[in-house]
């Protein structure tokens, strides 16, 4: 068991180890992940309320990690929205292509939830385990220390239990914390590096009451969640491309791409070549892309998916069905961000249930 002073000592120790330490902070009405220097930077005493198309913070209690998930996943720190791949110098026969140096910055994440750990594992599989390995992602990932936080409350939009990704972290972390009342944390190590950090902190052994309180909090978070029935869902979605629900959701969908931007597992990118206005130098820039844009499926002759119906169907079917064909698991971790941050409140759990009811 550690207390608030132990949490501060952990943050300081990770910084002293040469790491940039990131955690949840309150900015402009939301919880986002930014660099922190102490527990004073955490959103202590704030909780979130979320539903379809709705996100608000409210002051409640005195927990450091009372707010669950904001619009950002940790993805932006490992797989940035925009990154230079290479640049050129010189012109003509003197042109040189210079690869962007690998980002070997040592970082630590504090406050990663179980669903986001599952999302990082999904990105690992996509970006490091296949034949087209992303060297920048791999370099950032190799230098990462993760302090997870088990959820003791869930937002209305959470459904990680249905996806077997939470609310308790089971892997993918160095240290896991479960916050109890009074600023106390049950701390568990899952790596040698994590054990070494915990051993250096002021602490006391956990009692059976401590462990029972932590388990009760996690059970409470589990009971607060909505559900999605995943039994047979991949085959169901692939077998019903003409279900009338696809047209119904298309009438609401704005094609704004919010769901893909906040999703912690979406990995699609495109590249731009940007030429300097002052000389011959050029940069090739990798940036996030979304299957909700017309250009995403544009080939010679036009877009393959020109309308909202086909784009939403592509996104949801890939996330919950064809992702399994590619990577052996669904591409959804049940974080619920796509529900909260959809301007019209489209709910992937409701859409899956509607498709299950029959039709084309």
UniProtKB/TrEMBL annotation:
Keywords (alphabetical) are: Iron, Iron-sulfur, Metal-binding
Would the keyword Metal-binding turn up in this protein's UniProt record? yes
Would you indicate the residue range of the signal peptide?
Answer: none
Domain named 4Fe-4S ferredoxin-type is located at: 242-274, 320-351
Q: Establish whether keyword Ribonucleoprotein is in the entry.
A: no
- The molecule here is called 4Fe-4S ferredoxin
Which organism was this protein described from?
Sinisalibacter lacisalsi
Source lineage = Bacteria, Pseudomonadati, Pseudomonadota, Alphaproteobacteria, Rhodobacterales
